[in-house]
Write a structure and sequence with these properties.
The protein has 3 helices and no strands. The chain has 50 residues and is an all-alpha fold. Helix content is 76%, strand content 0%. The protein has one domain.
Amino acid sequence: MMPLTFSISNGIALGFITYTVMKAGTGKFSDISIAMYALSILFVFKLILI
């Protein structure tokens, strides 16, 4: 996503969100740490408010 958004921070944020969604979508909830959930939620709020 970095080339599409022209922003390194937005690309990293979307990477965290995508990783969490893909792991949860495949049912591998145990592979996702609480910190990853927290970061993904914070990045979603960041992207919504921008």
